[in-house]
């Protein structure tokens, strides 16, 4: 899916310059405001990558501590939300690596077509069904799907984040998307024999 047709990242929150300046100066109220604005996107991203609420809460805490610790280093040459999101993604992926969940990737076949990158089917509008389906995917595959579809990362960016190749990201995306479709699309209704009479 081309980047321009993807929904904006949930992190895409414009932080006013005055608030950011106060936060960079260590103003507690400004830092609390930044925390409140980004708490939900960080937690959601961490939950999608780690697949566990406790792990997601830890990622949220670690991310926000790093943001507070490093906010003076933010140079402003990119949006603040992008800088904060990068910290959150790094924290979530680091936790994923620590959990040694890398072997759970879907089997890869290098000859398999990798063009199945369409978003999940319309049934995915049911957030609870999507959450259940995502939870059944291997953590690495789920991470690639989330980073690509929800956060708008390219395959090259995902590859760099995961220390893998762009074709690895494409394969994970294609296989994960097919698995999600299979889980989310309703079973075809069989027509009773009497209906044909």
Written account of the structure:
The structure is a single chain. It contains 8 helices and no strands. With 197 residues, it is mostly helical. The longest helix has 23 residues. The relative contact order is 0.13.
Distance between the termini: 45 Å
Strand content: under 5%
Instruction: Work out the count of structural domains.
Output: 2
Give the helices and strands as they follow along the chain: HHHHHHHH
Which sheet architecture does the biggest sheet show?
A: none
Rounded Rg = 19 Å
| Percent in helix | 55-70%
Question: What is the fold named in CATH at topology level of the largest domain?
Answer: Rna Polymerase Sigma Factor, Chain: A
Low-confidence stretches: 101-116
What would the principal axes of the Cα set say about the shape? elongated
Name of the CATH superfamily of the largest domain: RNA polymerase sigma factor, region 2, helix turn helix motif
Q: Would you state the CATH class of the largest domain?
A: Mainly Alpha
Overall pLDDT metric: 82
Class based on secondary structure composition and strand pairing: mainly alpha
Please give the count of helices: 8
Number of DSSP strand runs: 0
Any idea what the CATH architecture of the largest domain is? Orthogonal Bundle
InterPro entries: RNA_pol_sigma-70-like, RNA_pol_sigma-70_dom, RNA_pol_sigma70_r2, RNA_pol_sigma70_r4_t2, RNA_pol_sigma_r2, RNA_pol_sigma_r3/r4-like, WH-like_DNA-bd_sf
Protein name: Sigma-70 family RNA polymerase sigma factor
Domain RNA polymerase sigma-70 region: 38-100
Organism: Luteimonas marina
């Amino acid at each position: 899916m081309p980047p321009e047709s993807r929904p904006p990242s949930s992190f895409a929150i414009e932080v006013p310059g005055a608030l950011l300046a106060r936060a960079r100066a260590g103003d507690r109220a400004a830092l609390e405001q930044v925390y409140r604005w980004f708490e939900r996107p960080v937690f959601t991203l961490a939950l999608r990558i780690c697949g566990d609420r406790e792990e997601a809460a830890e990622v949220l805490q670690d991310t926000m501590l790093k943001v507070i610790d490093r906010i003076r280093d933010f140079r402003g040459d990119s949006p603040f939300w992008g800088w904060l999101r990068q910290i959150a993604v790094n924290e979530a992926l680091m936790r994923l690596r620590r959990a040694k969940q890398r072997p759970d990737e879907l089997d890869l076949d290098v000859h398999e077509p990798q063009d199945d990158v369409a978003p999940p089917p319309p049934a995915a509008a049911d957030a609870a069904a999507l959450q259940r389906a995502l939870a059944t995917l291997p953590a690495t595959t789920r991470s690639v799907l989330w980073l690509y579809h929800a956060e708008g990362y390219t395959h090259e960016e995902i590859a760099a984040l995961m220390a893998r190749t762009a074709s690895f990201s494409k394969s994970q995306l294609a296989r994960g998307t097919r698995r999600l479709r299979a889980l989310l699309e309703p079973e075809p209704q069989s027509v009773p024999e009497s209906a044909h009479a």
